[in-house]
Amino acid sequence: MLPSSLTVTLSITVLGILSLAAFVWAWLTGQFDDIERQGMLPLDDDDMSVLRPWESASQKAARVERWGPPKPSAPGAWGGTA
Amino acid sequence: MSVTLPPSVVGAVSPITDMENLDVRLRADASSRRVALVAIASSVVWLLLGSAFGMVASLKLHLPDWLVSSAPLTFGRLRTAHLNAMAYGWASLAMIGVSAWMIPRLVHTELRVAKAAEVGVALWNVGVAIGIASILAGKMDGLEWLEMPRYTADPLLVLGGGLVGFSILATLAVREVEHLYVSVWYTTAAFVWFPVIFVVGNWPTFGGVESAAVNWFYAHNALGLWLTPISLAAAYYFIPKILGRPIYSYQLSLLGFWTLGLFYSLNGMHHLIGGPLPTWMITTSIVASALMIIPVLAVAVNQHMTMVGRFAALRYSPTLRFVVFGAVAYTLVSLQGSFMAFREINRLTHFTHVTVAHAHLGLYGFVTMIMFGSIYYILPRLLGREWVSERLISWHFWLVAVGLLVYLVPLTVGGILQGVAMGDPSSTWEQVVAAMKPGLVGRSVGGALLTAGHLVFAWHVRLMFRGDRARQGLPPYHEVVPVVVEGARA
Amino acid sequence: MTRVWLLVLGVIGVIVFATSLLVVIPDTMIAAVRPAPQLQPYTAQQARGREVYIEQGCVYCHSQQVRDPVYTSDKARGWGPRATVPADYVHDRPHLLGTMRTGPDLINIGVRQPSELWQHVHLYDPRAYMPWSIMPAFPYLYEVVDAGAVPAGKTSYAVPGDRLPTGKVIVPTADAEALVAYLLSLKRTYPVPTGDAGDRGVGGRSEHTMP
Q1: Taking 80 as the threshold, does the pLDDT of residue B471 lie above it?
Q2: pLDDT of the residue at A70
Q3: Residue A21: closest C-alpha in chain C
Q4: Residue A4 is nearest to which of C10, C28, C201, comparing CB atoms?
Q5: H or E element: which one contains B167?
Q6: What's the pLDDT band for C194 if we cut at 50, 70, 90?
Q7: Three-state DSSP class for B206?
Q8: What is the pLDDT of residues C34-87, one digit of tens each?
Q9: DSSP string over B257-316
Q10: C-alpha C175: how far from chain center
Q11: What mean pLDDT do residues C148-170 have?
């Protein structure tokens, strides 16, 4: 299963080391800091405080507690006609 | 940043949003409006054309003497026109439209050089049109997934896609939001990867088995580095957006991105298992195909854990219905693919209709369904009106969900039986054909249901664009209703 | 992640890596493969026939490769005396290896069906010979003429079955002649050339290493 070509092995090793170096550099320069906040990027406060009809009572309560007074949803908010 | 609005609008508040967020969304949508609308509208036209080509091709496989008297209607050309119209017409243009809409939303910045992107969409359409016409005329490059002529149609796709990519990169260069969300990674990567692989795939100097390696290097990467990333980007955007919760593990999504790129790009040779190529190349691809489990599980875990406890949302949100269907299909088709890359399994499935069914689980179950869901979300926001009928959406969903099942199950079974018959050297070819035939008929039935679903969808999209049956009495929900308020902020 | 250029660099790195591994390096290795002396380049007519094969989309139902007998039953099925190797395809530009077998493999069809009559009748109407066949018919590659009115210098063929009215015969167009010439040239039965076999793992060898 090992490739018989030295060129292949060398290329993989070199490119692999380069990618690893790039990843480590990115990590050390803080590219992956504040991961949690990055996950929130598509969502703004409105997305978070709008009440969702499918959520259970406890889910709704958690939402109100975290994001403040609930807002009603507008038609089409879920990508249909509702 | 907020803009200074005229006094009559100052302090105006819609019932659901505050000014800052609304302002960002309105401006983002306004900037991408033309690009996205043209791309999406043209994609639906290609969807219908591709469905017609596919239906006729499918019927011809069990009605082989139907429409044989003219060359443009021969199976070999119609099947090819179907694949290219769907891959480069429907799927690619839908993805281009969705990307152009999503990026400004995610970086809170208006789409820059949008004119270039608009020209790009037009060029892409012209390129595909030339490509399909050439295919029907028999002028094909002779490589699967690369049939469109390399000197007349293909440059327009490279240029058109490049212009859209340029617009996206220009927007990213001046963006308001510092951090790049994972959907931005996937989308940007796709627009960089596609021109590279397309040019490599079409490079005219390769011959012999090397031409086969380059062919399947391209074709699998068209799936893995163009169609998959943008579809995943959409899923990573719409699932959190509609549910109102962030992705379960953002770290996992980053791992998923890099492993997808690294492993998926090496899969291509698994289309040539058993073939006249150096073993090391084939084995590399088989290993990479197995390693795909890592990014696939990352996506599956992320999307399932985000959905968990909220599956009831599927009853309320058509977008989520389509997108989650697509996300589940992604997991299934990728696991199936990893499985089929092992030589022991491939020995049975290679050269059979199992491969065709697998391709459709991916391109339809995953990519197309996610594009449907995305379009259901985006069009109202760009046209300022709601979808006319919940029932039309429902009909669409059920026709295509059931249609896909009716397509896949018989065709997979037929393919397995075909493979078993082929593997037995004492069977005659008549027996091999007899084994696959019921599956081919089943596929036509499934295809008919899918086509019906497309007609419903296209009709609804047309109603949406025309706007003459928009609901009266309710304001387009994202428009601001002017209200003068004392002491309002500027 | 805040730096677009870093993302783009990483993305380009990924594709450069994959292209080097699966395109550039193999190209340098396979470029050294030499055909066997028994394998001639296609004649002009055969090359045209190859184009016709592409124009009709034959590759979407027919493969052109024999897999190793250790691995599967291609050889036992009579599709060739040996697995095909890279050297068998040096004149093929582009390749037509195929990924579907709705119909049988064709790399040695010139050996299995060497009769021009059979090939032409089969192309005109596959069901003339095999009622169960689902192959498309290609009547537009042929002219239908009265049996007595065949143009001078042209070969005509009678077709069994219902497609052709009595008293008519088919005369192949130039494209049909070319296509059949190409099909009849498909023979890869000579012994495996050994010139490039050896430590690079290509040339004489293909996927023979299945346990």
Answers
A1: no
A2: 87
A3: C10
A4: C201
A5: helix B154-173
A6: low
A7: coil
A8: 888 999 999 999 999 999 999 999 999 999 999 988 889 999 999 999 999 999
A9: HHHHHHHHTT-GGGGGTTSSS-HHHHHHHHHHHHHTHHHHHHHHHHHHHHHTT-TTHHHH
A10: 16
A11: 91
**pLDDT for res B472:** 44
Nearest to C79 by CA among C101, C99, C58: C101
Residue B129 in domain: yes
Tell whether omega for the bond before C94 is within 30 degrees of 0, i.e. cis: yes
Distance in angstroms (rounded) separating the CA atoms of residues B65 and C140: 13
Encode pLDDT of B113-138 as tens digits.
999 999 999 999 999 999 999 999 99
Which residue type sits at B432?
A: V
Phi-psi map region of B175: left, alpha, beta (phi>0 left; psi -120 to 50 alpha): beta
The residue assigned the tokens 């709601």 is B386
C8, C27, C63: residue with CB nearest B188: C8
For C172, the 3-state DSSP assignment is strand
- List, for residues A35-63, the tens digit of each pLDDT value: 777 888 899 878 888 989 999 999 999 99
Cβ atoms of residues B365 and B347 within 8 Å: no
Largest interatomic CA distance in chain B: 90
- Of all residues in chain A, the one with the smallest CA distance to B376 is A79
Question: Which structure tokens are listed for C131?
Answer: 């009622």
> Is the distance from CB of A55 to CB of B310 less than 8 angstroms?
yes
**CB within 8 Å of B475: residues ≥ 6 apart:** B481
Cα dist from B457 to B253, B345, B395, B397, whole Å: 32, 38, 9, 9
Domains held by chain B: number: 1
Is B418 among the domain residues?
yes
Residue B266 lies in a domain: yes
**B344 in any annotated domain:** yes
Residues of chain B with Cβ-Cβ distance to A3 below 8 Å are 280, 284
Q: Which of B278, B330, B337 is nearest to B300 (CA)?
A: B330
Q: What is the mean pLDDT of residues B437-441?
A: 97
Q: Please judge whether C21 and A11 are an interchain contact, meaning their C-beta atoms are less than 8 angstroms apart.
A: yes
Averaged pLDDT for residues B264-288: 91
B298 lies in which domain range?
16-487
- Around Cβ C41, how many Cβ atoms within 10 Å? 9
How far C203 CA sits from the closest chain A CA (Å)? Answer: 13
* Mean pLDDT within B157-185: 94
Question: What six digits make up the tokens of B143?
Answer: 């490589």
Residue C161: Cβ within 10 Å count: 12
Q: Does residue B279 register a pLDDT over 80? A: yes
Give the predicted TM-score (pTM) of the model. Answer: 0.91
